[in-house]
């Protein structure tokens, strides 16, 4: 039987994106990153009637790709493409430094 070594355990401690599983566990229970908080704050200012805003760094921690979910009355009677354009316009300066952005918009159901 081979001796155990830390190097042998590395494959067991990796997540699906080749990042340590410990990183994913810490991220799952952590609050928002500074960049996520910044984007969230901008969206709160641009969409004051929003009932829900969630910004998630989906790049693995480098801040290059985000998923944004926002629910707001401001989107009422607008097509999805128009809603997404509103979000893009609100974040136009931040988008310059991003690799990608996933946007999910909705209108609150009463």
Number of helices: 5
CATH-defined architecture of the domain at 34-106: 2-Layer Sandwich
Instruction: Output the structural class.
Output: alpha+beta
Strand coverage percent: 15-25%
Subunit structure: Interacts with NFU1.
Main location: mitochondrion
Protein name: BolA-like protein 3
InterPro entries: BolA (IPR002634), BolA-like_sf (IPR036065), Mt_Fe-S_assembly_factor (IPR052275)
Write the layout of secondary structure elements.
Blueprint: H1 6-9, H2 21-29, H3 34-46, E1 50-57, E2 65-72, H4 80-90, H5 92-95, E3 100-106
Family: Belongs to the BolA/IbaG family.
Keywords: Mitochondrion
GO cellular component, one term: mitochondrion
Describe the fold and architecture.
The protein is globular. It has 110 residues and is an alpha+beta fold. The chain has a three-stranded mixed beta sheet, with helices on one face. It contains five helices and three strands, in the order αααββααβ. A hairpin with a 7-residue loop joins strand 1 and strand 2. It has a domain of 73 residues: 2-Layer Sandwich (GMP Synthetase, Chain A, domain 3), CATH 3.30.300. About 5% of the residues have low confidence.
Offer a few descriptive terms.
single chain; 110 residues; alpha+beta; GMP Synthetase, Chain A, domain 3; three-stranded mixed sheet; 3 strands; 21% strand
């Amino acid at each position: 039987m081979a001796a155990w070594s830390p190097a042998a355990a590395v494959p067991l401690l990796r997540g699906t994106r080749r990042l340590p599983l410990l990183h994913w566990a810490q991220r799952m229970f952590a609050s928002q990153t500074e960049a996520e908080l910044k984007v969230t704050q901008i969206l709160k200012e641009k969409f004051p009637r929003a009932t829900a805003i969630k910004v998630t760094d989906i790049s693995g921690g480098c801040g290059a790709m985000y998923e944004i979910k926002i629910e707001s009355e401001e989107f009422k009677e607008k097509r999805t493409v128009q809603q997404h354009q509103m979000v893009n316009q609100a974040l136009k300066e931040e988008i310059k430094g991003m690799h990608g952005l996933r946007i999910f918009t909705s209108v609150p159901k009463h």
